[in-house]
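Trying the structure run again after the queue cleared.
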Amino acid sequence: MPAVPFESARFVPPDCTLLELPRKTRDREEVMTPNDRKSLAKAGAYMGLAFILPIAMYAGYWAGDRLDQHFQTRFWYVIGILVGFAAGLYELIRQSNRIERRKE
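Done. Tokens:
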């Protein structure tokens, strides 16, 4: 199979050339209003909230598992998951209230 030059391997829509692509992208950015940017910033902040609860629960599980290994027991990991869930839920509510309080 012949080698394809890097420039020809790019996808170019049929109605424009490579030289027109940056200008079209620039025009699209100029069309965004400040309100659109605030909405996108809020959406990005809300997407970050999706990681809070699972990470807090895993951290609780990890800490409980370490306690189980240290004390040779088998119940601390459940307590750790519950504490992690409560802490994650608290942080989730706190962060979502903070996002909503931002000036629009």
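The chain is about 70% helix and 0% strand. Worth checking whether this holds up in the mutant runs.
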